[in-house]
Hints:
Elements: H1 2-38, H2 45-68, H3 78-98
Amino acid sequence: MGGVAVLLYDWVNSVQSFIWVFTTVYTLLILAYIITSWVRLPYSPWLNRIQRFLYDVCEPYLRLFRRILPSFGPLDLSPVVGVVFLVLIGRVASALLGRLH
């Protein structure tokens, strides 16, 4: 019976680590997407690929919040709300998994 508890504990720690890494990396990707949308970069095939990758990864998630939030003119609050929501969901999931210990 002790082996099952050790496996469960290991599984919970692995999932919590994955959630933490995922939220951190996705938050950094959103931050990079915001910065590249503000700054006009010179044309380069590599920079274009990076910008396209950031757009393809971040835009579907941020579009969910753009549909809900009212328009504030040129100010886009969807990245802020998206990151807060992502961190909140990550912490709730980690807390729920922590109860399995």
